[in-house]
Amino acid sequence: MSNSIDYGNMMHRAMRGLIAEVLSDVAVSGLPGDHHFFINFDTRHPDVAMADWLFDRYPQDMTIVVQEWFDNLVVGEDGFQITLNFGNTPEPISIPFDAIRTFVDPSVEFGLRFETQDGDAENEVVELPDIDLETLEEIADTPEPNKAKEADIVSLDSFRK
User: Which of 2, 31, 88, 158 is 20 to 30 A removed from 68 (C-alpha atoms)?
Assistant: First the structure.
């Protein structure tokens, strides 16, 4: 038995479990009301699976938008799979929960951010007041796969007080 309680890892598992539960409900019932998600993840995680051209375009991290069109959402114990539309091309993506950096539902100003510093997981609940949805939704405007465009990077820090 350890000499201390590992609250950091316990919180980490609880927050990932919350995301898994939310996505499982959406897989069964669809997105209710105006809910939609911005999920940023580390594309360098060894268990991320997606098309090579997406890895080329997003070599470090990527933000996906789960909103109007998505298909084949399957949630497992360690992650989820989803098919999203990129420039009218459906592409399956597999994302382990451990690769997720941020999970945001701007419709209710809810967000989670996972940070790792010096190997220690530091997690926090992020309040998102006065979200500029236009700026966030620019992330969803992905160009055709064969057209080169520099990625727009939006820092969620700009939405915090």
Answer: 158
